[in-house]
């Protein structure tokens, strides 16, 4: 895609903008969208724009950003326009502290994972039906941490494949905990068909954009290419992100569990959930105690 024409068609004005995500790596699928970040200093939700057969995810960024996850998403952006050179200078600063950003995001992910494990146990004690959802979130946060400790670019579409290809290290031994607790061994075409429908339904409830079209497109690609486990992981990760967005309003929306049961493919056995939470918690403690070093 011609980046200059892209800027014109998106009507980005003169704001600095760059292309990120899968499309600036060597490992992208035809189904992957184009992640465009425009630094217009606005705090508004992502927008989905379709141009011909491609989907553009328009993110709004700020040069005062301090969140390590977002800064890593800006790392190595392919510049679309930057007449003021502000974006070039900003990216240079990110590159200088890249290692510390990965370490910070890994630490934050481990803490979030442990928080979700605790929420799992509390929910079980209180007979709260959302307990399996918290357990799933804990697994995906652990996956985030391991990927970040390996300085891997973040993103659910390619994360499982990236984790599979990592060399054996003390840190990467914990990948087996992710695969055990995420549930990918249950993935089948029939299950995925049910999961994607519920995932899209849940996504539409949470986000006021057309992002479900991207979910459907990626699902179609995964299934067509027999990437069953990757599809299961991707759908679960998307549900994790959306679940976390509404975590503070769960008590007001108890009926959501009906769509999440299928979307997350949740485990119903409380004893299994407790065992999984303990496994994840142990991995988090080990990685934190090791000082986030391989």
Notes on the protein architecture:
With 294 residues, the chain is α+β, with helices and mostly antiparallel strands. It folds into two domains: 3-96, Beta Polymerase, domain 2; 99-289, no CATH class. It has twelve helices and five strands. It has helices at residues 3-10, 68-74, 86-96, 98-125, 131-149, 156-164, 175-182, 189-206, 211-224, 228-245, 256-263, 270-289; strands spanning 17-20, 34-38, 47-51, 54-60, 78-81. Strands 3-4-2-1-5 form a five-stranded mixed β-sheet, covered by helices on one side. Helix 4 runs antiparallel to helix 12, helix 5 runs parallel beside helix 12 and helix 8 (189-206) packs antiparallel against helix 9. The model has no long low-confidence stretch (mean pLDDT 92).
Task: Tell me the distance between the termini.
Answer: 39 Å
- What is the string of helix and strand elements? HEEEEHEHHHHHHHHHH
Q: Tell me the strand percentage band.
A: 5-15%
Strand order of the largest sheet: 3-4-2-1-5
- Counting DSSP E segments of at least 2 residues, the number of strands comes to 5
**Which structural class do the helices and strands define?**
alpha+beta
> What's the quaternary structure here?
single chain
Main sheet? 5 strands, mixed
User: What would the principal axes of the Cα set say about the shape?
Assistant: globular
Helical residue percent?
55-70%
Individual helix count: 12
How many individual domains?
2
Mean pLDDT: 92
Segments where pLDDT lies below 50 for 5+ residues? none
Our Rg estimate from Cα atoms comes to 19 Å
């Amino acid at each position: 895609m011609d980046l200059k024409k892209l800027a014109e068609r998106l009507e980005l004005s003169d704001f600095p903008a760059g292309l990120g995500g899968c499309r600036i790596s060597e490992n992208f699928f035809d189904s992957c969208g184009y992640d465009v970040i425009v630094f217009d200093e606005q705090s508004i939700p992502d927008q989905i724009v379709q141009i011909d057969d491609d989907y553009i995810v328009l993110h709004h960024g700020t040069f005062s950003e301090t969140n390590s996850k977002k800064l890593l998403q800006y790392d190595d952006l392919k510049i679309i326009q930057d007449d003021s050179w502000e974006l070039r200078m900003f990216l240079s600063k990110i590159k200088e502290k890249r290692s510390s950003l990965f370490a910070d995001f890994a630490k934050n992910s481990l803490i979030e994972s442990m928080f979700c494990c605790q929420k799992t146990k509390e929910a079980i004690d209180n007979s709260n039906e959302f307990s399996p959802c918290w357990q799933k979130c804990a697994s995906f946060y652990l996956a985030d941490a391991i990927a970040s400790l390996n300085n891997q670019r973040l993103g659910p579409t390619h994360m499982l494949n990236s984790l599979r290809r990592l060399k054996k290290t003390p840190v990467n031994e914990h990948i087996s905990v992710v695969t055990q607790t995420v549930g990918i061994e249950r993935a089948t075409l029939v299950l995925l068909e049910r999961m994607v429908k519920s995932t899209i339904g849940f996504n539409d409830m949470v986000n006021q954009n057309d992002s479900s079209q991207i979910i459907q497109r990626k699902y179609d690609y995964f299934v067509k290419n027999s990437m069953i486990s990757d599809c299961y992981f991707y759908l679960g990760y998307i549900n994790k992100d959306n679940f976390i967005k509404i975590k503070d309003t769960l008590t007001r929306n108890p009926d959501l569990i009906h769509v999440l049961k299928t979307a997350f493919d949740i485990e119903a056995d409380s004893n299994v959930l407790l065992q999984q939470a303990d496994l994840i918690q142990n991995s988090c403690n080990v990685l934190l105690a090791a000082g986030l070093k391989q």
